[in-house]
C-alpha cells in the first residue's frame, strides 16, 4: 500500500510540474459589453525580416486575437540576439504601443546591427497591466550583408 501511495504522489508531482511549465500567458479584458472579463491568448507571430542591409533590417510581426485591445492596454515589439531564443529580459529589444487599426500587423526598422552577422529575432506582446507575462512569436533568423566595398 505504501508503494502505491508513493507512486500516486510521484505521478501527481509530475503532472503539477508538467502543467505548470507549459502555462501560456493570457490577457484578460472586458469587451463587447457586459461585465464578465474574457480571457484571450494572443497568437504572436514573427514574420519575415525584409530590407536587410549591413546595419539595419525591417522587422515584421503580427498578432491575432486582439479584439478588445487598444494602444492603452497592449504593448508589442521585437527582441533580438546572436544566439537564438531572444527575450526581453536578456537581449536587445524595442517595444511600442499596439495599433489595432493595422489588422494586427506591426513593424520596426532597427539600425543596431553589425555587418556580416547572423541575428535571431522574435516578435513579442504583453498587457500593460502585467508586463511580467510576455508572449513571444517564433524565432526568425537573418544575416546582415557584409558591407564590403
Plain-language structure description:
- The structure is a single chain.
- It is elongated and about 50 Å long.
- It is mostly beta strands and 149 residues long.
- The chain has one helix spanning 2-21; strands at 27-29, 38-40, 43-50, 57-64, 74-81, 92-97, 105-110, 118-127, 135-136, 140-143.
- Strands 5, 6, 8, 9 and 10 form a five-stranded antiparallel sheet that branches. Strands 3-4-7 form a three-stranded antiparallel sheet, with no helix packed on it.
- Helix content is 13%, strand content 39%.
- A hairpin with a 6-residue loop joins strand 3 (43-50) and strand 4.
Blueprint (SSEs and pairs):
Elements: H1 2-21, E1 27-29, E2 38-40, E3 43-50, E4 57-64, E5 74-81, E6 92-97, E7 105-110, E8 118-127, E9 135-136, E10 140-143
Antiparallel strand pairs: 1-2, 3-4, 4-7, 5-6, 5-8, 8-9, 8-10
Keywords:
single chain, about 150 residues, 5-stranded antiparallel beta sheet, elongated
Question: For the terminal residues, how far apart are their CA atoms?
Answer: 77 Å
Averaging pLDDT over every residue, what do you get?
Answer: 76
Computed structural class: mainly beta
The count of DSSP E runs of length 2 or more, i.e. the number of strands, is 10
Question: Taking Cα atoms only, what radius of gyration do you get, to the nearest Å?
Answer: 20 Å
State the low-pLDDT regions, or none.
4-32
Q: What share of the residues does DSSP label as strand, in percent?
A: 35-45%
What's the main sheet like? 5 strands, antiparallel
The helix/strand order is HEEEEEEEEEE
What is the 3D shape?
A: elongated
The residue fraction in helices comes out at 10-25%
Number of helices: 1
Amino acid at each position: 500500500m505504501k508503494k502505491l501511495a508513493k507512486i500516486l504522489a510521484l505521478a501527481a508531482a509530475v503532472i503539477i510540474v508538467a502543467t505548470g511549465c507549459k502555462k501560456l500567458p493570457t490577457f484578460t479584458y472586458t469587451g463587447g459589453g457586459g461585465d464578465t472579463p474574457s480571457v484571450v491568448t494572443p497568437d504572436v507571430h514573427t514574420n519575415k525580416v525584409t530590407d536587410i542591409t549591413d546595419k539595419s533590417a525591417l522587422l515584421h510581426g503580427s498578432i491575432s486575437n486582439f479584439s478588445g485591445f487598444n494602444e492603452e492596454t497592449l504593448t508589442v515589439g521585437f527582441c533580438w540576439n546572436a544566439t537564438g531564443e531572444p527575450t526581453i529580459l536578456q537581449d536587445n529589444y524595442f517595444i511600442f504601443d499596439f495599433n489595432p487599426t493595422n489588422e494586427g500587423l506591426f513593424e520596426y526598422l532597427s539600425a543596431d546591427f553589425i555587418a556580416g552577422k547572423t541575428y535571431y529575432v522574435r516578435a513579442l506582446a504583453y498587457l500593460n497591466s502585467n508586463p511580467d507575462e510576455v508572449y513571444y512569436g517564433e524565432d526568425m533568423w537573418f544575416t546582415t550583408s557584409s558591407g564590403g566595398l
